Amino acid sequence: MIVGLETGDRSGAGLVLGITLGLLALAGWCLIVLPWVTLWFFSTLGRGRVLRFLLVLVGLTSSAVVAEVVGIEPLLGAFFAGLGLNRMIPNESPLMETTDFVGNALFIPAFLVSVGLLFDPAVMFVASTLRLALWLSIALVAGKAIAAWMSGRAYRLAGPESGLLFTVSVAQAAATLAGTIIGLEIGLYGEDVVNAVMVVIAVSLVITSVGTPRYAQRIEQPEAEERRLGEKVVFAVRDAGGGLASRLRVTGRIAEAGGGVVLPVLVSVPETASSLSASRGRVAEIDDELHALGLEGETRIRVDRSLAEGLVNAAFEADASLVALGWAGPRPVTGIFAETIASEVARNVECPVVVVAAVPAEPELAVLIVRERDLQGWSLDAVRTAAKLAVALAPQRRLTVGPLARDEIAAAGIELPEWAEYEPGGPDVEAGWAERVSNRGDVIVAVSRGRPSERVAQAIVDGGRSVIGVTPSKAPRWVTGDPTVRFASRRR
Questions:
Q1: How does pLDDT run across 355-375, given as a tens digit for each residue?
Q2: Which among 104, 199, 205, 427 could disulfide-bond with 133, CB atoms 3.0 to 4.6 Å apart, if both were Cys?
Q3: What is the DSSP letter of 401?
């Protein structure tokens, strides 16, 4: 608005209307069109990392061009592009790592050099420039201090917490430089103000560097926050083909809900040299399935003595928030007394473990199965995990819970959103209840409890629905982070 008033010939009302329409057009491009194009490109043509990064650059430059066309500063267009693309590029993905590297190694230094060329170091030490810098610094420090004090009073923060809020917010750099350069280009002020701003930036950075460590040491460390289930999902790959794509789609929805990434892991137990070569040959096929869904991530090969040990080691190595395995169907009678791979992994990792049986269809509804026996003993944590997964997977906030009543579930400490619908039933449930409350293609989330649950899951999958079974951990969480010790101890 200031740029328009200084350089334009429109009245105040016309200027406000033009800026409003320009912002709407820019938001439409960056928040609607650009994400749709990106998702389409990622799942079709742009399955390689280079092509995906090039699309990020196209999104950045096109948003800046659209902003300039509609009369908005290009800097704001680049910012809007980041808002539109952030859900397409998870923080833990390789594409985010590449984008962050290029920005820090190329764009930011180029911006700083271009700004530095505009300044005259000799002018920074002139008395008039220093006086202006002093007043600007006082205004900056006083404004940030008042804001931090008011925020501390409003949110009942301790003294060191308010001090930390002040020191981390007083620092000025990129946005201040950008605004200063725009003002210089339109002739709003001269080089004396620009050089004074450079002094202010230096003062603010010194205050932040000195004050932040001191206040941080005086703050009591908070308890560790509970991680999002979809932050880092380690997905165990057993086979390729149509079933793999369906399971990746469901797992990808969990990761997207948590703003995370799917990490496919192909565990190889090499009996011969050819078996390891075959595993390496499947990496491209698995990555192609992953990228066809528009997901970020790269398949990892883990060579180990067994599938369970490989998944445990991969989960600790990646600091996984969830481990997902594909379901191979009900166990035969001869395997009833043998421990499943999911149970073995669940006993040795610090994160939940789920088994996924998926159908190739987009769900319209998520169903959470909570039975009376699920709320007993060591499976209660698994029910909480199942509830979080069901909420994350619920399309357009459509979630059905049962067969237990709302009061019984709430009494066990299971938190569910108010928009969840409850479908009554008996104390237990079979496949008929799940089929009655859902349609083909929907996803069912439940706690997996041995062979009876496997029979129900098979019936539900045969009915055209996806199933996610949360595997309870019967053993306490391990304190040590060395999986070798745990496996050796169990063998003894």
A1: 888 888 788 888 888 877 777
A2: 199
A3: E
